[in-house]
Amino acid sequence: MQKNELLKRVQEKMGDGALPMTKTGDVVAATFEVIADAIVAKDSVTIHGFGTFVAKEHGERAARNPQTKEPITVPAGFSPKFKPSTTLKNRVNAGE
Question: Which ranges constitute the DSSP H helices of 1-59?
């Protein structure tokens, strides 16, 4: 699903005339921005019934350059992760 389809579906869920498409887009964009800002700040965002967004730390590790076969070190860092809630997992498994 692309962003435009997401906006159309959000607007359908809210009902006719609830918000113009531009405002719906602003709300969705602001929601994603707030979640991203929290992850960048190493905070977690938990949405009851949906899941939790976190910045997961991964340590430094050894790897190998696939072209030269030279060993290299991949530095420690953070990756964004999403952990679905049990409610969401159950809905997906039930096909709702």
Answer: 3-14, 21-40
CA dist., res. 55 & res. 20, Å (int): 33
Residues 38 and 44 sit within 8 Å (Cβ to Cβ): yes
Q: How much is the pLDDT for 93?
A: 94
Q: What is the pLDDT of residues 45-61, one digit of tens each?
A: 999 999 999 999 999 99
Which residue, 15, 50, 10, is CA-closest to 30?
10
The helix, strand and coil proportions of the chain, stated in percent and rounded to the nearest 5, come to 45, 30, 30
For the residues 63-87, what does the mean pLDDT come to? Answer: 94
Give the CB-side neighbour count of residue 40, counting CA atoms within 13 A: 6
Specify the pTM. Answer: 0.78
Radius of gyration of the chain, Cα coordinates, nearest whole angstrom: 19
